[in-house]
Amino acid sequence: MEKTWNNKAWFMVIPVLLLVAFSAVIPLMTVVNYSVQDTFGNNQFFWAGTDWFADILSSDRFWDALFRNLAFSMIILAIEIPLGIFIALNMPKKGLGVPVCLILMALPLLIPWNVVGTIWQVFGRVDIGLLGYTLNGMGIDYNYTRDPIDAWATVIVMDVWHWTSLVVLLCYAGLVSIPDAYYQAAKIDGASRWSVFRFIQLPKMKRVLLIAVLLRFMDSFMIYTEPFVVTGGGPGNSTTFLSIDLVKMAVGQFDLGPAAAMSIIYFLIILLMSWVFYTVMTVSDAKSQ
């Protein structure tokens, strides 16, 4: 029997494709256009070719910011993924505690990024902030506006507080989807808590963990608002990530050509790293099945 195709669904998809083209593809083409040209204002452009890309890739400023971004993302993943799994494993699976815990986990995710930055900016101040005032009262010389280590610690703790809930909710969704028959079989076999986690819970969470790792990597690698509000990229350039440096170059210095080239390189790095994460984890998941 010849298979018939129903193309009516395309009428629902075409508006979405047009919207994506208008909101994503056209701005991207504009950035590409700026990246190969130079301008001195008055809407006058001069062909520059790949000069801006060569300048960015040979700049210590770019590589320093990239290293800070990679270090921050790796630290965030190393903290939030295990912490999220641990919290999800200890959340109740039945009863009144379930909605209470889910609401508490969702609360940090509902706070806008600029508000999160403002909260931690005030929270960490040594004169009026609860965290800064308490630490200095305990004899700890803490000042995120002066010490790079304190600035890094503040930004990391802020991100952990804000985004670990996302990992928790994803892991919890994976845990509650595991049938009780697996746990009953493990109980009959006398499996330990570690064995249950290693051979039942962790394999069943692999897909949601893949999503969690990809989302947290992309978000942490593109972080801008929170550290900009808290530290402004300082002290010095210690918390100047690629996103902050890009905004400084485009808005502060109005170097549109280099900023456009840097944004394209930034986008390609994120795309490449996400593809590597996805490939490695999906291959590992396929081997374990």
Summarize this structure as a short list of keywords or feature phrases:
single chain, about 290 residues, mainly alpha, 2 domains, two-stranded antiparallel ribbon, 12 helices, about 0% strand, Sugar_ABC_transporter, MetI-like, Sugar ABC transporter permease, transport, membrane
What can you tell me about this protein's structure?
The protein has 289 residues and is mostly helical. The chain contains twelve helices and two strands; from the N terminus they run αββααααααααααα. The protein has two domains: 12-49, no CATH class; 61-288, MetI-like fold (Orthogonal Bundle), CATH 1.10.3720. The two termini are 35 Å apart. The model has no long low-confidence stretch (mean pLDDT 87).
CATH superfamily of the largest domain: MetI-like
Helical content class: over 70%
CATH architectural group of the largest domain = Orthogonal Bundle
Unreliable stretches (pLDDT < 50, length at least 5) are none
The total tally of domains equals 2
Question: What's the quick description here?
Answer:
With 289 residues, this protein is an all-alpha fold. Helices cover 74% and strands 2% of the residues.
